[in-house]
Amino acid sequence: MVTMEPISIGEHTLVGVEVKLPKTTLLTISTARGYIMCGALDVGLLNERLGDRKIIAGRAVGVKTLKELLEAPLESVTSEAAALGIRPGMAGHEALLMML
């Protein structure tokens, strides 16, 4: 099952997506420029194999809900996210605001 829901951060409305799969759930919250995602995101792949796409993204591990994804510290970020000042340890909602 796939669920989409609006996520409000201040005056901004973002898109949250939850994909329920056997034995796991994929979570992502996106802006027009970038996104944060659960531990399934392969930041190394985005940086190394897809670097020419300049993807702005961050990864949080151990999250089970979109609310947890907003609050969790990012474990890793892409090079393009780092160029915007987004850093590991930053809360998901803070990173998303920098992606607007």
Automatic annotation (TrEMBL):
Pfam families: DUF1805 (PF08827)
Entries under Gene3D superfamilies matching the protein: Hypothetical protein YunC
InterPro entries recorded: DUF1805, YunC_sf
Domain of life, source organism: Bacteria
Protein name as catalogued: DUF1805 domain-containing protein
Organism the protein comes from: Paenibacillus chibensis
